[in-house]
Recover the amino acids of this structure.
C-alpha cells in the first residue's frame, strides 16, 4: 500500500521520517512516500484536497481544517500525537539588547518585552513578530507570553506569518524582530549570530500539544498500519540511545541542512541560547516517544479554549466537542 505523507522540515517530524527511512513502514507493508512542504498552508491544502493521504500537522490547524475555519474543509482526524512541546521564542539581538531584562526567568523576560513593545507601539513603529500560522500553538504561546508581559499582543505587536524554514532568513533581512517557531530553527538563528532564545515554549505552556498525524476520517481504519509504523518509529525516536542516529537522519533526509549538532541539541534539550554560548537545559523542550502518542482529551479542551481566547471561534463548548471527535485515541489503542 502506497501512502503519500506531507511534512514541514522540523525536528518534530522525526517519527514520520524514521518510519519511512528505517523500515518501520515497510515492515507494515507500506510504501511511505514523504513530501516536504514549504509551508503549513500548502500542506493543509494538499491534504484537504486529497493530494496527500496523511500529514505531520499542527494540531490546531488540523482541527481548524475539520471545522472549515482554514482553507478547504476536510473531515480530518488525529489517530495519534507525534510530540509535545518543541517551540521557542527567539528575538533579534538588537531587540534583546534594547529590552535589557533584569533576569533570564520567564516573567522578567516577558515584562521587558511588554514594556518595549508598548513603547514602540506608542511611537508608531510596532515590533514585527512572526508565527508559523494563525492556527498554531506558536500563536497561542506568543499571546500567553505577551499577556505575562502585560500587553495585548494583537493591539501592540504586528504579527506576521512566516513558514518555519524561512524564519531565520526573515530575521537576517530585518523583516521581523523575532519569531516563535519549532526546533531546530531557534538554534540555527543563534548559531548564525542573529538572535537570542528568549523563552521556551514548554515553560510558557507545559506539555503543549504540538503536532499530530492527520488523516481523512474515511481512511483512518485503512491507514491503521501507518499508525502502527509511526508509533513504533516514535518510540524509537524517544530512546536516548538513538539520538545520534536520529540527528544524522534529520540532517540528511529531513531538509534541516547539515547542522547535526544543532539538531542534537533540540532532541536532548541541551540548548545554547545566545552568541556568548550561554547554555540552558530542559529535558521537556521537545518530547517524543511512547508517553506522548495517545491523543489526550485535555489537549482537545485546551485547543478549544485557545481558539476562543484568540477570537478564532465564538463557541468554545461547541469547539471542544468537535475537538473530542477530532482526536481518535481508540484508533491509536487499536
Amino acid at each position: 500500500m502506497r501512502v503519500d505523507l506531507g511534512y514541514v522540515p522540523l525536528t518534530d517530524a522525526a517519527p514520520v521520517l524514521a518510519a519511512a527511512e528505517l523500515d518501520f513502514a515497510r515492515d507494515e507493508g507500506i510504501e511511505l512516500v514523504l513530501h516536504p512542504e514549504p509551508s503549513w498552508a500548502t500542506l493543509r491544502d494538499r491534504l484537504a484536497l486529497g493530494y496527500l493521504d496523511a500529514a505531520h500537522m499542527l494540531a490546531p490547524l488540523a482541527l481548524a481544517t475539520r471545522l472549515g475555519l482554514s482553507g478547504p474543509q476536510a473531515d480530518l482526524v488525529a489517530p495519534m500525537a507525534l510530540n509535545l512541546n518543541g517551540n521557542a521564542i527567539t528575538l533579534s539581538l538588537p531587540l534583546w539588547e534594547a529590552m535589557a531584562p533584569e533576569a533570564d526567568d520567564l516573567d522578567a523576560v516577558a515584562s521587558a518585552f511588554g514594556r518595549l513593545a508598548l513603547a514602540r507601539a506608542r511611537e508608531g513603529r510596532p515590533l514585527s513578530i512572526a508565527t508559523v500560522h494563525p492556527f498554531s500553538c506558536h500563536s497561542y504561546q506568543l499571546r500567553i507570553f505577551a499577556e505575562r508581559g502585560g500587553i495585548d499582543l494583537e493591539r501592540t505587536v504586528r504579527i506576521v506569518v512566516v513558514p518555519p524554514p524561512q524564519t531565520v532568513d526573515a530575521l537576517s533581512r530585518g523583516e521581523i524582530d523575532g519569531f516563535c517557531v519549532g526546533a531546530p530553527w531557534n538554534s540555527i538563528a543563534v548559531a548564525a549570530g542573529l538572535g537570542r532564545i528568549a523563552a521556551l515554549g514548554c515553560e510558557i505552556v507545559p506539555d503543549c500539544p504540538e503536532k499530530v498525524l492527520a488523516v481523512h476520517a474515511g481512511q483512518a481504519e485503512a491507514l491503521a498500519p501507518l499508525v502502527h509504523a509511526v508509533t513504533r518509529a516514535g518510540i524509537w525516536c524517544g530512546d536516548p540511545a538513538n539520538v545520534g542516529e536520529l540527528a544524522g537522519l534529520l540532517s540528511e533526509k529531513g531538509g534541516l541542512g547539515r547542522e547535526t549538532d544543532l539538531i542534537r541539541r533540540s532532541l536532548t534539550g541541551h540548548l545554547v541560547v545566545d552568541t556568548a554560548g550561554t547554555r540552558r537545559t530542559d529535558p521537556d523542550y521537545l518530547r517524543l516517544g511512547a508517553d506522548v502518542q495517545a491523543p489526550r482529551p485535555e489537549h482537545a479542551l485546551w485547543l478549544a479554549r485557545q481558539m476562543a481566547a484568540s477570537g478564532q471561534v465564538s463557541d468554545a463548548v461547541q469547539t471542544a466537542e468537535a475537538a473530542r471527535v477530532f482526536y481518535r485515541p481508540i484508533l491509536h489503542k487499536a
Observations:
- The longest helix spans residues 106-122.
- DSSP finds 17 helices and 14 strands in the chain.
